[in-house]
Amino acid sequence: xxxVLELFVSFLKIGALMxxxxxxxxxxxxxxxxxxxxxxxxxxxxxxYALSQCVPGVIAVNTxxxxxxxxxxWGGAAAAVLGVIAAPVVAILLxxxxxMQFWNSPTMVSIFNGVRVAVAAVITNAVIQLVRxxxxxxxxxxxxxxxxxxxxxxxxxxxxVVLLAIIVGFVLWGVRR
Amino acid sequence: xxxxxxxxxxxxxxxFAVGGGYSTLPFLQKIMERYPAWFGSLQLAxxxxxxxxxxxxxxxxxATFAGYSAAGMPGAILATxxxxxxxxxxVSLLARALEKHRQNLLVDSLFSTLRPAVTGLIAAAAxxxxxxALLKGTLAGGLIQxxxxxxxxxxxxxxxxxxxxKVKKLHPVFFFLAxxxxxxxxGIFI
Lengths: 177, 190
Description:
The structure holds 2 protein chains of 2 kinds.
Chain A: H1 2-17, H2 26-36, H3 42-54, H4 59-99, H5 106-134, H6 138-153, H7 158-176
Chain B: H1 2-16, H2 24-34, H3 44-53, H4 58-98, H5 105-134, H6 143-146, H7 149-161, H8 172-189
């Protein structure tokens, strides 16, 4: 029980302090889960993190479930997942209940016009980083382009991109074997 | 019925959105196209901005926010729960199984094709956010009329700053803050 409670508290802190994508979670995880609690090693954390990026779902939630499961079984996984989403849910509810009331005022429209541009810039930068680390060969370029075309030009569901990658992954496995 | 649909849509998102963070956005975009009533006048970029500016993973933030817009407090809880449920089950099972098959060639092959494909998927989501931020008309209506040029200028400045060594280490929140202030000033003076 103490174990489960500790998992909840640790991931509550991580969820409250991380912003944006799962990438911002890594330094927090290192400090809390590896150095402070010594639940898993740094290598194990990197494995969990890599896996979390490749399976469906939000990276932070995946990583929480992975560490929780490893440390405390199903109860541990549940505690870690609930911990990591608790603060974000409360924060969003506060924003939604307060902000929604003056959403359409001219000042808010101007501010959000600017914020929207900033989000576009930050996402563009993130995509550049992602392409650099994830697209390494011709197959990667082809798959990346296919993913872009399927969504941006053909307007199909992202499910098709994932399925395509899985099929190609099986073919690649057949070739390499 | 709304609750059931909310659960189903976000469960699917949790089940298929590979790559975390912004990979939820294309799914959210699809949901917005299918159920415009859930979101009122909100755009995808608004939800992305709010998600980025509040603590927690973007995907969870987006689900909570969309659930709240669609069906109030219960909707917020339900959408968030539906989003994380597949992760909880899948990752738990995987964490147990992977201990045994760490060096497996199939696992490695699947990961190596998923990563670039998902990158393309995220790039497409980014493209739609860029369009929403920089265009005021369609590209077919003439190139000069299509762009909101003050936004293009702000975009160029911010993106440039993201490549300056010390500045790029700043938390994204500072860039949103800067964008918000710039937008507010542009609203007053331009």
